[in-house]
Write a structure and sequence with these properties.
36% of the residues lie in helices and 32% in strands. It contains seven helices and ten strands. It has helices at 38-57, 69-88, 90-105, 127-134, 137-141, 143-146, 251-278; strands at 6-12, 15-22, 25-30, 111-121, 150-157, 162-170, 173-182, 201-209, 214-225, 236-246.
Length: 283
């Protein structure tokens, strides 16, 4: 679980990004208010998730857990399983419903975003291959390990894209929600979505609470990048992940989302690299 991480600040394509080597692969990451290595965000999220689960379990015996908290929370989540995680976290998801309804009630008609961007240089993965992997069952299989605050993700393919049932948290706001319509962005309905013409692959979808209330919109975009622009020997691709909320949300919460998305970008692209390299996924 320990990764060799080398980091420095780099200037690429007009934006400052944190340059990290993770598992031997080069990443340029940006988004959170304070740039830190991805592992710092991930261990903080693991503390949140592990403390939450231990509190909900009370005096229940725990399996023997690794000392590394990221590995520990993953093992604990796997040992509990999907249905037990849903049951354990039910009080927290009720609290999250109330949190999001307060945000909506305290909002105007304006929307604000949390953004995270990651440029990855992976020998077996292009932006087209990652898009295919992300739409496959492999992405759901990787979800539990993709972020310590991931608990459940169940996705089906529909006539217009993907539909997911998700249980996850952002800084402890542990929300049970759906994205029923992840597909081509609908800018007629959501004019706040950035056009991003330089990104040839874009998908977006509503984030709905269990009662159907729309509390957010997810927008993910992909594009190829030239290795020369980043001083790299191979070409790579960029993941631009944005979640939109109404303007009653605090920037503290938005920054939890930025950190969350940086972790996801790295872990999901690394898993796509492993799956394609091993042959377990053929794009």
């Amino acid at each position: 679980m320990f990764k060799k991480i080398i980091f420095l600040f780099a200037f690429a394509l007009g934006a400052t990004a944190l340059n990290e080597t993770i598992d031997g692969y080069k990443y340029f990451l940006s988004g959170p208010n304070i740039d830190q290595p991805k592992s710092v965000y991930e261990h903080a999220a693991a503390d949140t998730a592990l403390n939450l689960l231990k509190r909900r379990l009370g005096d229940e015996p725990l399996p023997e857990l690794p000392s590394d908290n990221v590995a520990a929370v993953l093992k604990l989540k796997k040992s509990l399983g999907t249905e037990m995680l849903k049951e354990l976290l039910a009080p927290d998801t009720d609290d999250a419903d109330s949190f999001w309804l307060r945000v909506i009630n305290n909002s105007s008609d304006s929307w604000v975003s949390a953004d995270a961007r990651g440029v990855a240089f992976l020998p077996n993965v292009s932006y087209l291959q990652f898009a295919a992997w992300y739409a496959s069952p492999n992405a759901d299989a990787a979800n539990l390990a993709a972020n310590p605050e991931h608990y459940v993700k169940e996705t089906v393919t529909t006539s217009t894209g993907l539909s997911s049932k998700i249980l996850e948290g952002w800084g402890g706001v542990t929300t049970n929600f759906t994205i029923p319509n992840f597909g081509t962005p609908d800018r007629g309905k959501d004019p706040f979505l950035r056009p991003l013409p330089e990104f040839p692959i874009q998908e977006a979808g509503d984030k709905n609470l269990r009662d159907g209330t729309r509390f957010g919109v997810l927008h993910i975009s992909l594009r190829p990048v030239s290795g020369k622009d980043y001083g790299q020997p191979i070409d790579g691709f960029e993941v631009y992940s944005t979640v939109w909320y109404q303007d009653g949300v605090s920037d503290d919460h938005l920054d939890q989302e930025r950190r969350h998305m940086v972790i996801e970008i790295v872990n999901l692209t690394l898993q796509a690299q492993k799956d394609i390299q091993s042959g377990s996924f053929s794009p």
